[in-house]
Design brief:
homodimer, alpha/beta, Rossmann fold, eight-stranded mixed beta sheet, 7 helices, AB_hydrolase_fold (chains A, B), hydrolase (chains A, B), carboxylic ester hydrolase activity (chains A, B)
Chain lengths: 239, 239
């Protein structure tokens, strides 16, 4: 079942199993740059998690994305990202600083949304919460997971440490929950060394980096299976 | 069921499901330095693969290991390895050259054993073959998988490119089957950069490196689960 919601003006969507009653583990999913809360991969993954595990899954439109911008603005963002990928331009300091600013804005939005969601009987506050977000979803998720004790496990990746972004390293150091981090050897916008440097900064005792060949948009499908098992290990056992 | 065998003087062991008849996928497992064909982790993994998937699993004593040396010689090897780990001495050129020599000796032994095993009705030659071996098992496995077209998928890791070993890079380049490669960030004897350099050399289109914190002997247990799924993906589908 799919339910739209809005918290403090931020639009979100919640997926739950048909006919579900009572609390359950929740997975927060943050889309990537130029995407929105109902991007295809999120919808597919939400359906899978809901049907197979009975979890709830929630997504928000990030600042400057989805229903928070006009179609023309969203298209411009997508065009710019495609151009950056095609030209293999790594993140420059101005872009990295803007991403940090966007994350600072998004973190309280996610925390408010989590308050709201845990107030719903179909989610509740007695079960573990996971976070999934790669690329921009990692830039937003790292400070969120660092600050939010309700999140017990996170999937990150396709992101790294870049000049211009002053706050990501310290946020990563404050993340102590288990993480799985995906990285692409031939990422057009994230140098492998920058990704490894971010991975090294995480304070988590359990942290596992999965490195595959290919570009930013070519994460192999078996990684999605691995994310699923990662969440099953950390959400279902405790749930 | 467990069956000891010897091919050209090399002792091996074959695990198969109780009462099994007819051919099945086969996983070859090569133990690490100072271990032997019935080292605890191999026995546990073999039992799991046999019971859960119905595969056959085979292990050999590597040159200079197991029943091919005296107890005193085996103890000396184990003491030397423990000392190297405790002193965090990376592989020196002489040790790397000796490992290359050992691998050159082991490859034809494995190929002869595979001929023998595929001649048994309970294995046969109509099903895919996988290879598992980390550390010394990778040094032996890389040239084996490079030369042996019957092996369709391999788990490697805890190994890297080192001065003194002239043949490993080109062997890795000739490996084209899917691989999963495990690496430890704090490995006492393999620098992370050496491991990444080896990973980069593999010719495989599907290759996935899993990097975790901890030392040479501290690979997390969830990696064993991942190996299992990797083999299930590549052996059972085709089998």
């Amino acid at each position: 079942m799919l339910m739209d919601f809005t918290v403090d003006g931020v639009p979100g969507v919640l997926w739950t199993p048909a006919g579900a009653t009572g609390g359950r583990p929740l997975v927060l999913m943050c889309h990537g740059r130029s995407q929105h809360k109902r991007a295809d991969p999120l919808v597919r993954r939400a359906a899978r998690y809901v049907e197979r595990y009975g979890w709830a899954v929630a997504a928000l439109d990030a600042p400057g994305h989805g229903d928070r911008v006009t179609t023309a603005e969203a298209t411009l963002t997508a065009v710019k990202l495609r151009r950056r990928l095609a030209e293999k331009r790594k993140l420059d300091p101005a872009t990295a600083a803007a991403a940090a600013q966007r994350a600072a804005e998004a973190v309280p939005e996610w925390r408010a949304a989590l308050d709201h969601l845990q107030g719903l009987p179909v989610v509740g506050d007695a079960h573990p919460v996971g976070y999934w977000g790669v690329s921009m979803g990692t830039r937003i998720g790292v400070p969120l997971v660092a600050e939010e004790p309700r999140i017990v496990a996170a999937v990150f990746g396709l992101a790294g440490l870049h000049p211009g972004d002053e706050t990501l390293p310290s946020a990563a150091a404050r993340v102590t929950v288990p993480i799985e981090f995906v990285l692409q050897s031939d990422d057009e916008i994230v140098e492998r060394e920058a990704g490894l440097a971010l991975f090294d900064r995480f304070g988590s005792r359990e942290k596992s980096l999965h490195l595959n060949p290919g570009g930013h948009l070519a994460t192999p499908s078996f990684e999605a299976e691995s994310w699923e098992r990662f969440f099953a290990r950390h959400l279902s056992a405790a749930g």
